[in-house]
Task: inverse folding
């Protein structure tokens, strides 16, 4: 299997990528700015000596052109994507009346629209092979948003809904 993990140079994405590699998946390690940690994850995965390979690819997944480039480079490296882990993101939050249009757009571009755009590219392959996994890394705000949690809780809730829609379309 081949996995693409966004935001995989550190944190939860790093952990997901390493675990997938440990289980034998080849992994595309997406990172936005720190090449060193991403390359370290590649070395860890290839050190398992179980056939798993890894490649680090820089891309800002909040940008449409970067998503397409990352997808093409991943296909060139491994030929397919079986598992997509949408992990890129940070917590942008505050009182709703203080969130600017630019903050809303940036949050949705990085979290929800990155997932929508990747799935548009990846989902047809998964359906054709009749196997695939799409994993959206969310937070508790997706189901139980608190005060001052916009825009993150809203974009995460939308990711959750989109993932559920896809699960019904893939059957």
Result:
């Amino acid at each position: 299997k081949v996995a693409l993990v966004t935001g995989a140079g550190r944190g939860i994405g790093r952990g997901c990528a390493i675990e997938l590699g440990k289980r034998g998946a080849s992994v595309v390690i997406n990172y936005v700015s720190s090449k060193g940690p991403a390359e370290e994850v590649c070395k860890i995965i290839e050190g398992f000596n179980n056939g798993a390979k890894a490649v680090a690819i820089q891309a800002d997944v909040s940008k449409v052109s970067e998503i397409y480039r990352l997808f093409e480079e991943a296909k060139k490296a491994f030929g397919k994507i079986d598992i997509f882990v949408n992990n890129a993101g940070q917590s942008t939050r505050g009182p709703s009346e203080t969130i600017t249009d630019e903050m809303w757009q940036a949050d949705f571009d990085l979290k929800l629209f990155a997932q929508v755009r990747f799935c548009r590219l990846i989902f047809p392959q998964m359906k054709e092979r009749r196997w695939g996994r799409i994993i959206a890394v969310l937070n508790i705000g997706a189901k139980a948003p608190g005060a001052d949690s916009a825009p993150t809780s809203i974009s995460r809730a939308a990711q959750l809904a989109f993932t559920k829609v896809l699960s019904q379309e893939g059957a």
